[in-house]
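Q: What structure does this chain adopt?
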Amino acid sequence: MQKQSAKDGPQFTKLLLGKEDYNWIDPVVSDTIFYFKKVTVCGDTLLLTDGLNHTVQCSIEELHDSVLTLSHVAGFEKKITYKKVLDYSDESARMKLELFKASDLTEDSLDVVVKSFVVWDFHQSHRDRIYHSLSKAEMLQAKDLLQRYMTDGSPEKDQYDNDDAYPFNQYIRQYESYLKEGHLYVLVTLNTFIDTERGCGYTVLKQDSYDMCDGGPSHATATIDLTAQKVVCFMTNGF
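A:
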């Protein structure tokens, strides 16, 4: 993934517009993915409608060959240029997987806040909780609590007959959160590797949490009560 300085702003983002149920725009330099259920082109205007029937309107500045330039995109001050790189119209090529390993990433890229319509919909379907959009500051608090929990030899880690976890920084860590009975809970999914659809790249980590139901200590889950400032559940072997 090409690094950008903060002053450059979101010059390049990921755009997937296909025939699938969900289309999405990933701003790359932030931690939020925008999902849309409907895509409509009206003249030089691109209309993107999300699952709550909210519509984002963009102006098409340029569209030819493999280049699309948009302006007046909500949340972006600059024009955004997309360049088509790969063609996955061939379903057999699209379904090929590629391996994403924690060891391939820098230490500051291992923590990912998952914010998407998919995650929002999952938590809103539970009547006893309210989806919470986790901020970076809250994520860093959760990260600190989990790192200390995993390195202090706490006997609580054995409450579920866990296999011993790998060192903290050998995991890709995906964070999402919800409110319940006045407490803010952070769910963390930890994986030493992820099999992802070819071409999706790093941004897939923000799309949805990668849950495993087995697999030994390469996969783990944690629940952190950020209000009480403690880890309340930790399990290796996935769920």
